[in-house]
Amino acid sequence: MKAGVLHAPFDLRYEDFETPEVSAGKVLVKVKYTGICGSDIPRVNGDACHYFPNILGHEFCGTVAEIGEGVTSLKTGDRVAGIPLIPCMKCEDCMKGNYSLCKHYSFIGSREFGSFAEYVCVPERNLVRFDDTVPFEQGAFFEPSTVALHGLERLNYQGGHSVAILGGGTIGMMTLQWAKIFGARNAVVFDIVDERLELAKRLGADNVINTKDEGFMQAALDITNGKGFDYVYETAGNTITMKMAFKLAANKAQVCFIGTPTRELSFSVSEWENMNRKEFILTGSWMSYSAPFPGHEWEMTAHYFGTGELKFDDSFIYKIVPLSRIAEAFEWFKVPGTVKGKILVDSEA
Questions:
Q1: Given the DSSP bridges, would you call strands 2-8 and 11-16 parallel, antiparallel or unpaired?
Q2: Of 178, 166, 295, which Cα lies nearest the Cα of 235?
Q3: Which are the contacts of 218, defined by CB distance < 8 A and separation ≥ 6?
């Protein structure tokens, strides 16, 4: 098969590679699309890769090409999306169903060969089937959707309340939709790009706020009659929005940081005192799994993608590139601000 093989930092090559063999309990997937994740960038354009040569890629979808002995839940031709985490299933965290916190896990596309290739072989439980009516482009967005749902549920989320979503990227847009599906009374998206805010409106946001506008904080609080928001989800991992969350939270609110920060973060005494005085609950979210593995996050994504209630918009995608141009795609990330949306790698092109 052909694959994008990483031989060293900044040395990603499109070349021949041995097609994986199917063993008992495993499934060979003919890959259609793989999304380039933010975690892939430092592995290619940095020193974060675990070993060489390696095949990255974990946000993938495709069709079942072959099944191994004992596989019963899938058949050849099924449309499937990849579930990249391979927990040990033996540690204390796994025994409690907290698979995201497993200390002895493996991961498809970093610790094991992934989907920047024509084929990938994974355990049966690491695939979820989706309906034939769901386009493959949408199938590549399973993991972002499950990350958003997992984050939503890290709080004691209930419908009928106000929700602030800070960041209008893919995770933010998925968080918005899950919040609305489960009954948000007023869901507001915050971003600095008008195009993303227009997209949020199309996807069901009740209000949008451009945080570059003068007086945006007062305008946001006015939406809640000055009380602040009952639920606040930070999805950008940005210092500014993480601090903003503390200001937007209502008394006794719940706040979840879904976004992953990339630099050191500190709070002033007055900023931190927001949490003390408001007595809001602050937590984080990591990945997208629950018991029984891989969790209802994946089943519900398949269901709501299938019904159309969890919407997909073409603007989620920045570009689709053939596998043969994968190295070029990673070059674009070297210039900040160039990539506006998800890049999908097409393994069949």
A1: antiparallel
A2: 166
A3: none
Cα–Cα distance, 88 to 95 (Å, whole number): 10
pLDDT digits (tens, 9 = 90+) for 161-186: 999 999 999 999 999 999 999 999 99
Cβ–Cβ under 8 Å, residues 246 and 219? no
Residues 118 and 135: their CA atoms lie apart, in Å, by 18
Cβ density class 234-256: b for 16+ within 10 Å, e for less: bbbbbeebbbbbbebbbeebbbb
Helical pair 216-223 and 239-248, crossing angle rounded to 10 deg? 40
The H or E element containing residue 12 is strand 11-16
Mean pLDDT over all residues of the chain? Answer: 97
pLDDT digits (tens, 9 = 90+) for 17-55: 999 999 999 999 999 999 999 899 999 999 999 999 999
**281 phi/psi in degrees, rounded to 5:** -95, 130
Tokens of 126: 């690491």
pLDDT of residue 254: 98
Please state, in angstroms and as integers, the Cα–Cα distance from residue 293 to each residue in 52, 95, 108, following that order: 29, 11, 16
* Cis? peptide before 144, omega within 30° of 0: no
**Whole-model pTM?**
0.95
Return d(Cα 213, Cα 207) in angstroms, integer.
14
